[in-house]
Write a structure and sequence with these properties.
Elements lengths: L7 H8 L3 H8 L4 H7 L5 H8 L6 E3 L1 H7 L2 H15 L5 E3 L5 H10 L5 E3 L7 H7 L8 E3 L8 H10 L5 E3 L13 H4 L5 H9 L5 E3 L7 H10 L5 E3 L8 H5 L7 E3 L8 H7 L11 H5 L2 H10 L9 H8 L1
Parallel strand pairs: 1-2, 2-3, 3-4, 4-5, 5-6, 6-7, 7-8
């Protein structure tokens, strides 16, 4: 280390630092990088990284986007969540599956923030594992296509401390269904599930929601603490929003008349279309399903260094 300007005495000072102080420093490093590198520096640092203090907040969303392999992502999420030893306060990941969600819920009795956009978690997993998430205050389940109004209702009943919810959906033009006309139909059930269970919400994002004025009015009537509501891409035009008198405390964003063109909207939600690689997994998928993934995923790369994965998984 002396060749890099750090003499042995200075290095020993770093090595002897209190573990709590080291943990505070290490938490500034991205979670995936911390897992891959810090533990190999010295025994003292390895002990710190092995402890729970470094894993109260886990943010691996960018790493998940680069990997884009749900099975690998689930394995890493499980590995890191276990390290928290029930001290987990925040998890930001991407494309986790039911197994990753189950471990997060099991170790997340103190979890406050859960951000899992575009994940493959379904209603059954929500029903089975979400009872432990009573401390959850912030939840992002945007583009989680396997979660329906039933899962949202269960989350609302179990996550009684929830004050912020992001439930942005895919624009109808890009939703891969066999019947796009059916996808575009008005559906009030998600809006009503929110209105009937999440009474303490303060911030709510519902971009491209399929609900009408009826569903919106239910949310505004029941969620009395609401201060911010994003309605980007929603075709609602209730009179009370225009005069601002009925719900004066609510700040609105993304009303239909204020929306930019479709390309600008897609840029705002960070989605882009990439070419399909001729992989076996892509060949086995339904063409509509493949198209949906390729249209929505942001900055995806199909390869991640195998060595990094092995270190993380270990």
């Amino acid at each position: 280390m002396s060749s890099h300007g750090i003499n042995d005495d200075n290095w020993r000072d770093w090595e002897r630092l209190n573990h709590d102080i080291l943990a505070l420093i290490f938490k500034k490093i991205p979670s995936d990088e911390m897992a891959r590198t810090i533990s190999f520096i010295c025994k003292s640092w390895q002990e710190v990284v092995a402890g729970p203090c470094c894993w109260t907040e886990i943010n691996i969303e960018e790493w998940c986007r680069r990997v884009n392999h749900p099975d690998v992502i689930d394995a890493i999420v499980g590995n890191l969540v276990r390290r928290s030893r029930y001290m987990l306060r925040r998890l930001s990941a991407y494309r986790i599956q039911n197994w990753g969600f189950s471990l997060t819920a099991s170790f997340g009795t103190n979890l406050n923030v859960l951000e899992i956009p575009m994940s493959e978690v379904n209603d059954s997993a929500i029903k089975k594992y979400s009872r432990s998430l009573t401390s959850l205050t912030t939840l992002d389940i945007s583009y989680c296509n396997y979660i329906t109004y039933k899962g949202i209702e269960i989350l609302g009943n179990n996550c009684t401390s929830l004050i912020s919810l992001k439930r942005n959906l895919t624009p109808v033009e890009f939703e891969s269904t066999q019947n796009n006309e059916g996808a575009a139909q008005v559906n009030e059930r998600e809006a009503l599930a929110i209105a009937n269970t999440m009474f303490e919400l303060e911030q709510l994002e519902l971009a491209y929601g399929r609900f009408s004025d009826y569903g919106l009015d239910a949310i505004l009537s029941n969620c009395k603490a609401l201060s911010f509501l994003d309605l980007s891409g929603c075709h609602v035009e209730p009179e009370q929003l225009e005069d601002g008198e009925t719900y004066p405390s609510v700040e609105y964003a993304g009303m239909v008349e204020d929306l930019h063109d479709c390309s600008t909207i897609l840029e705002q939600v960070e989605v882009e279309k990439i070419e399909v690689l001729g992989t076996k997994s892509a060949e086995n998928k339904d063409p509509n399903s493949v198209n949906e993934e390729l249209t929505l995923v942001d900055h995806l790369k199909c390869k991640e260094h195998e060595k990094s994965m092995e270190v993380l998984a270990g």
